[in-house]
């Protein structure tokens, strides 16, 4: 079994979903098919990241995976300058905690609806910008994960603290 970047994307959405939705509903919110969501949930359950009965993410395994596995499994590689949607330290909540830099920010490429010019940072899954526009909390989690994937030490440390706090508040390991 091999984890895919879409698994992280779906785990973050499940973290924000208080009541389990159908795979079709989750897929529609994330811009992917129900079968992709189902396969991802199945992989994450086998990996011990989701409770097998409640289908809720488990705090400690999820935290360990996101904080220590994702940056190595799915590193953020800076690409060419494009117009897009700010991510990592250029998006909320890290944007408010850091001094404004004159450097180009990391962005998810989006020539049509992009609001910033910056260097490309491919999202965990191609439909992440679509889902992030519909769910501000998901956008924040994805941006924090991107800070882990490509940020410098200061951004990574702030992202770790934010993610630990949010994962702790949003999980309940009891079935």
Strand content: 5-15%
Strand segment tally: 3
List SSEs in N-to-C order: HHHHEHEEHHH
Helix run count? 8
Nearest-angstrom radius of gyration? Answer: 15 Å
Helix content: 40-55%
> Uncertain segments of ≥5 residues (pLDDT<50)?
none
Please give the alpha-carbon distance between the first and last residues.
25 Å
How are the elements arranged and paired?
Layout: H1 5-16, H2 23-30, H3 34-46, H4 59-73, E1 81-86, H5 94-97, E2 106-109, E3 116-120, H6 128-134, H7 136-150, H8 153-170
Parallel strand pairs: 2-3
Antiparallel strand pairs: 1-2, 1-3
Describe the structure.
With 175 residues, the chain is mainly alpha-helical. It is 53% helix and 9% strand. The protein is built from eight helices and three strands. It has helices at residues 5-16, 23-30, 34-46, 59-73, 94-97, 128-134, 136-150, 153-170; strands spanning 81-86, 106-109, 116-120. Strands 1, 2 and 3 form a three-stranded mixed β-sheet that branches. Helix 1 crosses helix 3 and helix 7 (136-150) packs antiparallel against helix 8. It is globular.
In summary, what is this structure?
By secondary structure, the chain is mainly alpha-helical. Strands 1, 2 and 3 form a 3-stranded mixed beta sheet that branches.
């Amino acid at each position: 079994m091999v984890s895919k970047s879409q698994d992280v994307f779906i785990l973050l959405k499940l973290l924000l979903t208080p009541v389990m939705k159908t795979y079709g509903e989750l897929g529609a919110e994330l811009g992917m098919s129900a079968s992709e969501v189902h396969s991802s949930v199945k992989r994450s359950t086998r990996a011990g990241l989701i409770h097998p009965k409640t289908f809720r993410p488990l705090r400690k395994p999820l935290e360990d995976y996101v904080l220590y596995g994702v940056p190595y499994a799915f590193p953020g590689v800076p690409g060419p300058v494009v117009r897009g949607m700010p991510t990592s330290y250029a998006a909320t909540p890290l944007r408010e905690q850091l001094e404004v830099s004159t450097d180009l920010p990391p962005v998810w490429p989006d020539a049509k609806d992009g609001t910033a010019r910056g260097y490309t940072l491919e999202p965990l899954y191609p439909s992440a910008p679509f889902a992030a526009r519909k769910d501000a909390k998901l956008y924040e989690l994805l941006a924090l994960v991107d800070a882990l994937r490509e940020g410098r030490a200061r951004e990574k440390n702030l992202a770790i603290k934010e993610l630990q706090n949010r994962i702790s508040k949003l999980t309940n390991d009891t079935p």
